[in-house]
Amino acid sequence: MFKRTRSLVCLSLAATFAFPAPIYANNIELPDIGTAASGTLTIAQEMQYGDAYMRMLRNNQPIVSDPVLNEYIDTLGHRLVAHANDVKTPFTFFMIRDRNINAFAFFGGYVALHSGLFLHAQSESELASVVAHEIAHVTQRHLARSMEDQARRSPATIAALAGSLLLAIAAPEAGLAAITATTAGNAQSQINYTRSNEKEADRFGITTLAKSGFDVQAMPRFFGRLADEYRYASKPPPMLLTHPLPEDRITDSRARAQGYPPHRVQPSLDYHLARSRIVARYAGIDSKAAKDWFDRTEKRAAPSIHPAFDYGRALVLLDNNQLEQANAILQPLLANDPNNKFYIDALTDLYIAQNKADTALSMLTKAMKTNPNNAVLEINYANTLIKLEKYQEAIRALQRYTHDHPNDVNGWHLLSEASIRIGDSDEDLAARAEILALKANWNKAIQYYTEASQLAELGSLKQARYDARIDQLMVQRDRFLALQ
């Protein structure tokens, strides 16, 4: 589906990974090393900063709003969170369309993965090692602790430090320069403190990976490959600028991995389906290059994940309107794995492109009986209803969806479209206002809701709802501005 200032306190706690495996008696629990950081920010304040910065990212970065990929990333991330120590906040995992290798975490349990990371992580365990490392940065409150440490060494204000740290997410070279300028003569101590954080995140991350059942050898393997590839590069990836990989870190991760008995992990089809989807739609390469990638990679891959490469080829064909060829690949894939949402999503697009939206609706209705309340199926179902001009049904489905998934812009976009089709201008304005609020465009969102209220019948429940939402948005705007 859907082919297609003053700075807040944040730090590019980039993915320098950690790793997985089963738990054994010789792996004792690690101590909680200074997680309090309460002298700087409370957990509630961290969550406020995280929400605010996420809204800024939605407005300024190419966030990938792909239901299938979002579900995969969220499932993987929460599998790890379920086995992490010191979890004090909810977690949100999302992807940014960027070919650079990078990942970062910030306040409130937000973890971002660049799409380029999937092109370099050769297994799900390697990707999980990145995510587990980032989770550890959040649970150990490294951002708050780093700010606290800098504030003790420097006359700089927390606001100045926050601005420098935020830059490190968006532009690592500029961010590091700003940190150096802000902390004056304390650059070396800042680097040492960051390295300390990295090693701590590695230690906690490998424990999380082990408990989650991943391959612990994935971390040193990924570390080593990345270090070798960029050892002499004039422009290393952003992740290595903010989180360098000195030899002692690689050695330490290797030694820790060797402390776990060998644990064979079968290749994950879902990971390779996600990877193929990224190559086909988000890697910024043409269809020929994508097909070449599928052919080359398949030759080295285990037979159990070969369907992922067929799926990638089918997406390329589908996106180039070669519908019959795409159908010839997708039908056998779905027949062999009838509940696979990667295949159901692709076939929904295919049927709609073939003007067979009724067939898509039947397939989705059947799938939802087996897997009710699934976001991928629900958003495809609503989109298909719109294509069938069943706008009232679509609106009812989308009202439920946006209630359950208020931060998913896909739901609001579709609700806006369906409202326009039936001439409901005030509901269209309200849906668009929610998209603007998700991007921290508070004044425009309030303006749209005000216009919606003026269009609604005087004294109606609709008008009361719009007015109540205006009050909420004004409070959120004031809180947001107070953080700056």
Mean pLDDT: 83
Tell me what portion of residues adopts beta-strand conformation. Answer: under 5%
Instruction: Please summarize the sheet with the most strands.
Output: 3 strands, mixed
Shape: flat
Number of strands: 3
Proportion in helices: 55-70%
Taking Cα atoms only, what radius of gyration do you get, to the nearest Å?
Answer: 24 Å
Domains, number: 2
Q: Count of DSSP helices?
A: 23
- For the largest sheet, list the strands in their spatial order: 1-3-2
| SSE order, one letter for each helix or strand | HHEEEHHHHHHHHHHHHHHHHHHHHH
Secondary structural class: mainly alpha
Poorly predicted regions: 4-38, 166-193
Cα-to-Cα separation, first versus last residue: 37 Å
Structure in words:
Keywords: Hydrolase, Metal-binding, Metalloprotease, Periplasm, Protease, Signal, Zinc. The active site is at 134, 202 (proton donor). One of its GO terms (cellular component) is membrane. It is an enzyme of class 3 (hydrolase). Belongs to the peptidase M48 family. BepA subfamily. There is one protein chain. Helix 5 runs antiparallel to helix 8 (187-211), helix 17 (357-370) packs antiparallel against helix 18 (375-387) and helix 18 runs antiparallel to helix 19. By secondary structure, the chain is mainly alpha-helical. The chain has helices at residues 43-60, 67-81, 115-120, 124-139, 142-153, 158-170, 172-182, 187-211, 218-229, 238-242, 247-258, 269-281, 287-299, 306-319, 323-336, 341-353, 357-370, 375-387, 391-404, 409-421, 425-438, 442-455, 461-482, and strands at 92-96, 103-106, 110-114. It folds into two domains: 43-258, no CATH class; 290-482, Alpha Horseshoe (Serine Threonine Protein Phosphatase 5, Tetratricopeptide repeat), CATH 1.25.40. 65% of the residues lie in helices and 3% in strands. The chain is flat, with a radius of gyration of 24 Å.
